[in-house]
Amino acid sequence: MRAVDIIQKKRDGLELSSAEIKWLIEGYVAGQVPDYQMSAFAMAVYFKGMTTREISDLTMTMVGTGEQIDLSEIAGIKVDKHSTGGVGDKVTLILVPLVASFGVPVAKMSGRGLGHTGGTIDKLESIKGFEVERNQEDFIKQVQELGLSVIGQSDQLVKADKLLYALRDVTATVDTIPLIASSVMSKKIAAGADSILLDVTVGEGAFMKNLTDARVLARTMVDLGKAVGRKTVAVITDMSQPLGRAIGNRLEILEALEILQGKGREDISDFICRLAQIMLGLADLEVSLEEVHSHLLDGSALKKFEEMVEAQGGDLQDLYRPSQAEFVLEIKADETGYIADLPAMEFGLFAMRLGAGRAVKSDDLDFETGIVFEKKVGEKVAAGELLAKIYANQKISQELVTEFKKNVKISNEPKKVSEIIEVIA
């Protein structure tokens, strides 16, 4: 076989054989297919797409390029969760201990943030001493003993995805459904869970900008999971505005703690409880929303989170400390009305420039910086009322304030919002 023939075949919109996909991906990982040819292949897929069978072959070939985690030593149905990315997404921090508080084991590998999207691992590293790098034996042992662990993704897991994603990132081929689906599902399948919840975000701050594409991606990933015997459900969720109140690593830890204490905003608390109910159902445990919510109110979920933090070397005193940002600036409304728009992408990029996110993978993070919103879309605000607080370790110029305010749209009519748009099983 030759890479050029496979590229040409896909360029012309033809279906690749299983053998051709396997040869290309394994050759790329072995260094026999160069970056420039794999870039051409990714662009051909971007324009011509892939059939369901091709995506399945691509996914399973990628799974075979690295180690696969065996969770069979852990009793019960193991559940996992993945989000396709967003702004202010601290869901994993609350959802994992909430599900584990019902006795359902959660063994989760998470990633870091880049650009306007935040990473769960970065947020956990804002807790002094928290260890995100654990070997497989310690990871499994902790889930056996406590019922939960969240660690960084192993470099040995799905080597093809690591190489291919880095290439896609610099060749404008990230946002194509076959490559997103195979990237996500190869890692979830290799991570070894029995059941998977997929949070497919849609809107201004997500990879999928419209509901049609989000549905196609969700259905593709659900079918991939089911094809290899993993119980899989996708939830399409709104990412047109930041999720919850906080953007920024330490600030999102503090919001997660509020929610775990039953003191969070009603909308995000209810959203996470609904996700937990679905995840528990994937483990064959049927519980009411009221019962799920009770585990936030009675401290059961918080106790699980604290146990995980302590088991992974985190300092429980540091866990609860406020942000140590040097400057905290209050942003107040210039007019009375209803919040009509808080564009997630714009505020994610704004927080990144404060140091809360990375422009490139080598950037250092400032864990203390970010934004906390006091008002969200659909809520009434009066002129002079507090809209948000900006946390920074640099002086905040008037230009930055002006930029922040121009992205807060206020109208005369309230706007209805719903975090969960659709469930695809």
From TrEMBL:
InterPro entries: Glycosyl_Trfase_fam3 (IPR000312), Glycosyl_Trfase_fam3_N_dom (IPR017459), Glycosyl_Trfase_fam3_N_dom_sf (IPR036320), Nuc_phospho_transferase (IPR035902), PYNP-like_C_sf (IPR036566), PYNP_C (IPR013102), Pyrmidine_PPas_bac/euk (IPR018090), Pyrmidine_PPase_CS (IPR017872). PROSITE patterns: THYMID_PHOSPHORYLASE. It is an enzyme of class 2 (transferase). It comes from the Bacteria. Residues 338-411 form the Pyrimidine nucleoside phosphorylase C-terminal domain. Keywords: Glycosyltransferase, Transferase. One of its GO terms (molecular function) is thymidine phosphorylase activity. Its cofactor is K(+). Its EC number is 2.4.2.2. It holds the Pfam family Glycos_trans_3N. It catalyses: thymidine + phosphate = 2-deoxy-alpha-D-ribose 1-phosphate + thymine; uridine + phosphate = alpha-D-ribose 1-phosphate + uracil; 2'-deoxyuridine + phosphate = 2-deoxy-alpha-D-ribose 1-phosphate + uracil. Belongs to the thymidine/pyrimidine-nucleoside phosphorylase family. Catalyzes phosphorolysis of the pyrimidine nucleosides uridine, thymidine and 2'-deoxyuridine with the formation of the corresponding pyrimidine base and ribose-1-phosphate. Homodimer. This is Pyrimidine-nucleoside phosphorylase. It comes from Streptococcus oricebi.
